[in-house]
């Protein structure tokens, strides 16, 4: 069984070990050492990276108590090798993992939540929490209460202790939840109100987290998923938000404190402008109805065919088609672009016998579109070419 140096020395970044085994692993190699400071993936905390000799460590896992290191080159069995830990990555994971414990502790003490999982990714960390009565959301005020509780302990720089208690001591400890293993139980205590079994790496004091920021709490598979940032991640997030807020405030000629109200006022003005633009566009388009009818292509039986794209949304397109077919002898084949695709409304006057539902369906389907409807009115969507196909079908029917 590998002697895991990180248990007692999480700040150790260089060590010497003896190579016990080396086996091929695809284009890489798996190496077993007699001792290692590399943390293997477990408990939601990702593996450490770094080097063993000249080989890069790209993965670390545990098999039957042994720590196996996936490396980019082979190592000689029996040779002594120098291991070097990627410290920024290790310390980041230490900060995130300690923050996980402190948030879980606050949720448990203040709201009765039970944490059931941790995931530390490259950008944000998350914990899944089973809340009382199946609650999957909490208020912003409750969230800030949890965050303030954690950061108060960070600012007091409460101690973080990790150790393997004896069986006799273990049964006396006020653990937040029962251990998931029966042997070699390692305990982490943070301050006076957090104690739980954990095999991860952590700072020696909470002050080394610097700052903990909860960024969201959302439902996830019947639980509440809390996303957070700690340490340098939280500082970088604050810097981004600070810069963005001040840049936006400058563009709006206001202060950061008034940014939200300024944006709300701008949104209201934009909604009013969009409504007025739509009203004017609607009025202008409907006024063009008679001109379009007069200029329409005329069939031998006197039916007028209007086949064209107009600038409109779905509602205005339907209203315009309805206006056109109020006149006698009109077939209106109207389209409007919606990004790369078009929306269509086909309609015909009451005295015209063409089936609009069949026409749209038969024109759209060969071109990958879809549509259908009543004999006098149909709707659909697809490529721009559908309109031309429908027009040709109408002309061919004469």
Kindly list the characteristics that best describe this protein:
398 residues; alpha+beta; Threonyl-tRNA Synthetase, Chain A, domain 2; Diaminopimelate Epimerase, Chain A, domain 1; 3 domains; six-stranded mixed sheet; 21 strands
Task: Provide a brief overview of the structure.
With 398 residues, the chain is α+β, with helices and mostly antiparallel strands. The chain is built from nine helices and 21 strands.
CATH superfamily of the largest domain: Threonyl-trna Synthetase, Chain A, domain 2
Low-confidence stretches: none
Instruction: Give the tally of β-strands.
Output: 21
- Span between N and C termini? 88 Å
> In CATH terms, what is the fold-level topology of the largest domain?
Threonyl-tRNA Synthetase, Chain A, domain 2
Q: Please tell me the total number of domains.
A: 3
Secondary-structure element order, N to C: EEEEEEEEHEEHEHEEEEHHHEEHEEHEEH
**Quaternary organization:** single chain
Q: Tell me the β content.
A: 25-35%
Tally the helices.
9
Tell me roughly what share of residues is in helical segments.
25-40%
Q: Main β-sheet, in a few words?
A: 6 strands, antiparallel, barrel
Supply the CATH class of the largest domain.
Alpha Beta
Q: Taking Cα atoms only, what radius of gyration do you get, to the nearest Å?
A: 34 Å
| CATH architecture annotation of the largest domain | 2-Layer Sandwich
Residue-averaged pLDDT: 94
Spatial strand arrangement across the major sheet: 2-3-7-6-5-8
Query: What is the structural class?
Result: alpha+beta
């Amino acid at each position: 069984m590998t002697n895991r140096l990180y248990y007692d020395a999480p700040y150790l970044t260089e060590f010497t070990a003896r190579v016990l085994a080396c086996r091929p692993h695809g284009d890489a190699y798996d190496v077993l050492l007699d001792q290692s400071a590399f943390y293997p993936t477990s408990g939601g905390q990702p593996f450490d990276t770094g080097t063993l000799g000249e080989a890069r460590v790209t993965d670390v896992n545990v098999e039957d108590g042994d720590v196996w290191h996936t490396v980019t080159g082979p190592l000689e069995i029996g040779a002594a090798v120098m291991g070097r830990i990627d410290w920024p990555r290790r310390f980041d994971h230490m900060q995130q993992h300690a923050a996980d414990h402190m948030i879980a502790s606050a949720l448990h003490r203040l709201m009765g939540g039970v944490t059931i999982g941790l995931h530390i990714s490259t950008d944000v960390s998350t914990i899944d929490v089973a809340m009382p009565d199946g609650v999957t959301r909490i208020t912003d005020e409750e969230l800030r209460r949890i965050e303030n509780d954690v950061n108060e302990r960070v600012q007091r720089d409460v101690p973080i202790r990790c150790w393997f208690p004896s069986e006799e001591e273990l049964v006396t400890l006020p653990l937040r939840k029962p251990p998931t293993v029966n042997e070699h139980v390692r305990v982490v205590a943070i301050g006076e109100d957090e104690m739980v079994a954990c095999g991860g790496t952590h700072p020696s004091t909470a002050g080394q987290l610097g700052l903990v920021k909860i960024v969201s709490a959302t439902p996830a598979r019947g639980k509440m998923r809390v996303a957070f940032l700690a340490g340098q991640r939280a500082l970088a997030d604050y810097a981004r938000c600070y810069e963005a807020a001040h840049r936006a405030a400058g563009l709006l000629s206001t202060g950061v404190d008034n940014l939200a109200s300024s944006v709300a006022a701008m949104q209201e003005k934009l909604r009013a402008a969009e409504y007025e633009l739509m009203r004017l566009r609607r009025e202008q388009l409907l006024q063009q109805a008679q001109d379009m009818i007069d200029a329409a292509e005329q069939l031998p039986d006197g039916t007028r065919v209007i086949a064209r794209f107009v600038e409109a949304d779905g509602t205005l397109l339907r209203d315009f088609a309805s206006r056109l077919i109020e006149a006698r002898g009109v077939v209106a084949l109207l389209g409007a672009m919606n990004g790369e695709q078009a929306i269509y409304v086909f309609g015909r006057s009451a005295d015209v016998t063409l089936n609009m539902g069949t026409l749209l369906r038969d024109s759209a389907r060969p071109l990958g579109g879809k549509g259908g409807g009543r004999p006098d009115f149909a709707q659909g969507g697809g490529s721009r070419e559908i309109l031309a196909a429908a027009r040709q079908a109408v002309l061919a029917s004469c």
